[in-house]
From TrEMBL:
Alphabetically ordered keywords of this record: FAD, Flavoprotein, Oxidoreductase
Protein name (record): Acyl-CoA dehydrogenase
Ranges for domain Acyl-CoA dehydrogenase/oxidase C-terminal: 239-367
Transmembrane helix is among the record's keywords: no
Annotated Acyl-CoA dehydrogenase/oxidase N-terminal domain residues: 11-121
GO molecular function: acyl-CoA dehydrogenase activity; flavin adenine dinucleotide binding
Cofactor dependency: FAD
Keyword Hydrolase: no
Length: 381
């Protein structure tokens, strides 16, 4: 039975409050700055608390596999709060990508084998979609898979993989003689090389992976993974734009708070018309982006989700970049210093603008999706 709108809103508010209060303790600015300069990039104790005390890892996983059985609206709220706090963790890689890929693989034995460790936080997963943090495109898959008897081996390189150097389970989209397939690789597998990279957004870890005849386990049917991976990519895109909204909201809040307390010429700078206008423009961008995420997270049909996710990527990328930069400007000289957190949000804005497809890519994708719907015969779905 679907919850009534008021009940659903109350449940989402409860999730938001619990996550926000937890992150206020677990991810203050001092902790973010300490963790972002480590190679691992996250606190394992916090990671396990998120899994076992809050149940965040399995919030959108069906109950039959040990999850909470909620959906993307609840998971989007979690990602929004994590984006606001700039939480240093492999949550997007493990929960937004790896777990979703497993659930969408139609391989129940693989889910039963790998999901429990991902759900309880004892293992971290990631997903290599196309060798880079680009939008999903089957033609851009960089890893090849060859079969020798009952075994598969992977060859190729992936220049940018979220948390690729610390993940215990690496799911890989690879090309076989039958098409796009999904494979599981153990982090200790022979022939696998992992190199952490230094990137613009130091709060999120990325690695380069090389596969040299690496043994892998096939997940699902050989050559039939493209549809599940496309669905996973759109769900991960919704998670990413929810993060962007959270970060934009935090930038707006800190800018408004500073404008109220910063005194210039004997009055708070927030009383000046130019600052009022800038804050009002920031609010419009944040609320518009939030509406786009709400629509995308509530989409249930694959095509509707694809449309909504691309719209949200365009809206949220613009919102976060503009709001992060305006927040820095409102803070004045201090906002441009290394000691202030404003630059961390600008870095997050620039990196997420390009992740999973740039705004220009998604505008082109929207045009193609709309054109393809017009080309369908009347009455077809």
């Amino acid at each position: 039975m679907t919850p009534a709108p008021a009940q659903a809103a109350t449940e989402l508010d409860s999730v938001r409050t619990a996550v926000r209060e937890f992150l206020a303790r677990a991810s203050p600015s001092s902790t973010v700055r300490a963790l972002m300069d480590t190679e691992r990039g996250y606190d394992d104790t916090v990671w396990r608390q998120m899994a076992n005390e809050l149940g965040l890892h399995g919030i959108a996983v069906p109950e039959r596999w040990g999850g909470a059985g909620a959906g993307m609206p609840e998971l989007a709220v979690v990602f929004e709060e994590m984006g606001a706090a700039l939480l240093c963790s492999p949550f997007l890689a493990s929960v937004g990508l790896a777990l979703q890929a497993l659930v969408n693989s139609n391989d129940e034995s693989a889910v039963e084998e790998f999901a429990p460790a991902l759900l309880d936080g004892s293992s971290v997963g990631t997903l290599v979609l196309n060798g880079a943090l680009d939008a999903w495109d089957p033609s851009a898959v960089t890893i090849g898979a060859s079969r020798s008897g009952a075994d598969y081996r992977l060859d190729g390189s992936a220049p940018m993989v979220l948390d690729g150097h610390t993940a215990d389970l690496i799911l890989v989209a690879a090309i076989t003689a039958n098409g796009i397939s999904l494979f599981a690789v153990d982090a200790t597998a022979p022939g696998l090389e992992r190199e952490p990279l230094r990137t613009l957004d130091r709060t999120r870890k990325v690695a380069r992976l090389r596969f040299d005849h690496v043994p892998a386990r096939l997940i699902g049917a050989d050559g039939e993974a493209a549809a599940g991976l496309a669905r996973t990519a759109d769900l991960a895109l919704v998670a990413l734009v929810a993060e962007q909204v959270g970060a934009a909201r935090r930038c707006l809040d800190t800018a408004v708070a500073y404008a109220k307390e910063r005194i210039q010429f004997g009055r708070a700078i927030g009383s000046f018309q130019a600052i009022k206008h800038r804050c009002a423009d920031m609010l419009v961008l944040v609320e518009g982006a939030r509406s786009a995420v709400f629509h995308a997270s509530n989409a249930t049909d694959d095509r509707d989700r694809a449309l909504a996710a691309s719209v949200a990527k365009v809206a949220c990328s613009e919102a976060l970049l503009h709001v992060a930069l305006d927040s820095m400007r409102i803070h004045g000289g201090i906002g441009f210093t290394w000691e202030h957190d404003a630059h961390l949000y600008v870095r997050r804005a620039k990196s997420t603008e390009l992740m999973f497809g740039s705004p220009d890519h998604h505008l082109a994708r929207l045009a193609n999706l709309v054109a393809s719907s017009h080309d369908q015969p009347e009455g077809s779905s």
